[in-house]
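Deliverable D2.4 — example input (C-alpha cells):
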C-alpha cells in the first residue's frame, strides 16, 4: 500500500500520488495517461494531473488496482 510519507516530489498537489516504491512498469500510464506519466529518464511514474470527473477517478482507481507494487495512493 502506498505511503504518503514516501510520496514522490514530482506529484502534482492533491490527493492522488505515486510513492517511491514505483518500479516504472508503465502500467498506470497505459491505463490513465491523463493522470500518470513517467519521468523523462523513466525512473518512476508520478501524478501530473489530479482526477476531476467520475471517469477520471475511475481510471485512477483502475490504475491503482493494477499497479504491481501498490505504489499508487489516494488519501
Ligand atoms: S503501475 Fe505502479 S509501479 Fe507501474 S509505473 Fe505506475 S506507479 Fe509505478
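Example output (designed residues):
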Amino acid at each position: 500500500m502506498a505511503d504518503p510519507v514516501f510520496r514522490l516530489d514530482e506529484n502534482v498537489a492533491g490527493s492522488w500520488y505515486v510513492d517511491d516504491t514505483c518500479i516504472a512498469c508503465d502500467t498506470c500510464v497505459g491505463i490513465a495517461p491523463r493522470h500518470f506519466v513517467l519521468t523523462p529518464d523513466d525512473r518512476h511514474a508520478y501524478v501530473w494531473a489530479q482526477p476531476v470527473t467520475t471517469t477520471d477517478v475511475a481510471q485512477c482507481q483502475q490504475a491503482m488496482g493494477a499497479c504491481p507494487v501498490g505504489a499508487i495512493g489516494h488519501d
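Residues 35 and 50 are 6 Å apart (CA to CA).
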